[in-house]
Specification:
There is one protein chain. The longest helix is centred in the first third of the chain and has 18 residues. α2 packs antiparallel against α10. Strands 2-1-3-9-4 form a 5-stranded mixed beta sheet. The radius of gyration is 21 Å and the shape is globular. It has about 250 residues and is an alpha/beta fold. It folds into 2 domains: about 110 residues, 3-Layer(aba) Sandwich (D-Maltodextrin-Binding Protein, domain 2); about 100 residues, D-Maltodextrin-Binding Protein, domain 2 (3-Layer(aba) Sandwich).
Length: about 250
């Protein structure tokens, strides 16, 4: 084989290896449904492989502190200053994927409470026999609800006494199964749940959360990570996010 032919063969092999290199993603659970669809489209278009794990933001912070790394990290933007300061993510690689608000979920067919005002929400919370929202120690939506909404309504202690804290995943499934009367979670994590009715909360009580992705400092496949992130914020890549309750950041 001539030297030119050998060089070409090596180049093709390296190209194929690069194209097929796996992109490992560590992500907050709020984006799971939309991210999974968008990333699947990207894999089909590019031939890249992708492996993602999803967890509440608080758990992600613990895993990062334990030195778990990936190629891409997706987490609420409030975490980014510390992550950049600590050298966890590469500055300048942040891509804002979408913004999400909190909503309520009641069992499909059950009476739908009027939550269009702060007073309506307060009445519904007092009347509910059982409630679930994310454990505020690990979930951003749960922390916002527990430390922001409930104190404003003056019912924090009363509601906490009948709350089953969510530990992750789609906690509205507890409502669908009849285990809990009402759930409060990111609307993007209620949309995929069958058997519930989504009820919006008053705009004045919302604390929207922006989720963003970035390349991790110790990424093994930084090129693939950048390519994935760029696709996720393209018009095509963002559509699954908009279809599942996100708004443009």
């Amino acid at each position: 084989m001539s030297s030119m032919t050998l060089a070409a063969a090596i180049g093709l092999a390296l190209s194929a290896t690069s194209a097929a290199a796996e992109v490992v993603v560590l992500s907050a659970g709020a984006v799971k449904s939309a991210f999974s669809e968008s990333a699947a489209q990207w894999q089909k278009k590019t031939g890249h492989a992708m492996k993602a794990s999803f967890a509440p933001a608080g758990e992600l912070r613990k895993r990062l502190a334990a030195r778990e790394f990936a190629d891409v990290l997706v987490i609420p933007v409030e975490n980014f200053p510390a992550l950049e300061r600590d050298g966890v993510i590469v500055p300048g690689t942040r891509r804002d994927l979408g913004k999400v608000v909190t909503a309520a979920a009641v069992k499909k067919g059950a009476p739908v409470p009027d939550l269009s005002s702060a007073e309506g929400l307060r009445r519904a919370l007092v009347a509910a026999k059982s409630v679930t929202y994310m454990d505020p120690k690990i979930g951003t939506s749960g922390r916002n609800f527990d430390e922001g909404v409930l104190p404003k309504l003056g019912v924090r202690d009363e509601v906490r006494a009948k709350t089953v804290f969510g530990e992750g995943g789609y906690i509205a499934e507890k409502v669908a199964r009849g285990e809990v009367e009402i759930a409060f979670h990111n609307v993007t994590e209620i949309v995929p749940v069958q058997g519930v009715t989504i009820v919006p909360l008053p705009a004045e009580l919302q604390q929207p959360i922006v989720y963003a992705g970035a390349v991790m400092k110790d990424a093994k496949n930084p090129e693939g990570a950048r390519a994935l992130l760029d696709y996720l914020v393209s018009a095509e890549g963002r559509k699954p996010f908009l279809d599942r309750g996100f708004t443009a950041p």
